[in-house]
Write a structure and sequence with these properties.
2 domains; alpha+beta; three-stranded antiparallel β-sheet; 2 helices; 126 residues; 3 strands
């Protein structure tokens, strides 16, 4: 990983500002897609301070990944519970047999996945 690319999406960082100080100038960069901002204070710091700032940045990155993983797990659990409630409701209250619900779900899955792939392809072009 280079210093001028985002640790999550690997896109090039954009400079959004400058910090002026007595010891020099530091850049403030942000990722255009993730919105994660970082500051380049390493030129003004000593060796041990640079190591400490690198460790803090690594811990912040791990915390961000943990947050994203928790969000993904919660989303998957909510999707499974929603699907179970819908299937139960359609079977009990709608009077549809389980096999028909399964066939309709699989039929609806093909357009949904293709739509999602088209959206992802458009997002990657930008």
């Amino acid at each position: 990983m280079q210093f001028d690319e985002c640790p999550h999406c690997r896109k090039r960082l954009e400079i959004v500002g400058l910090k002026f100080g007595f010891n020099g100038v530091a850049t403030v960069s942000a990722c255009p897609s993730c919105g994660i901002a970082s500051s380049d204070d390493s030129k003004r710091l000593g060796g041990s301070a640079r190591l400490m700032s690198a460790m803090v940045a690594a811990f912040d990155m791990m915390d961000e990944l943990n947050t994203r993983l928790r969000y993904l797990v919660a989303f998957v659990i909510a999707a499974v519970i929603t699907a179970a409630v819908l299937r139960h409701s359609l079977h009990i209250y709608g009077g549809l047999p389980r096999e028909e619900i399964r066939v309709n779900a699989m039929t609806a899955l093909i357009p949904a996945v293709s739509f999602l792939l088209i959206l992802l392809a458009r997002k990657r072009r930008r």
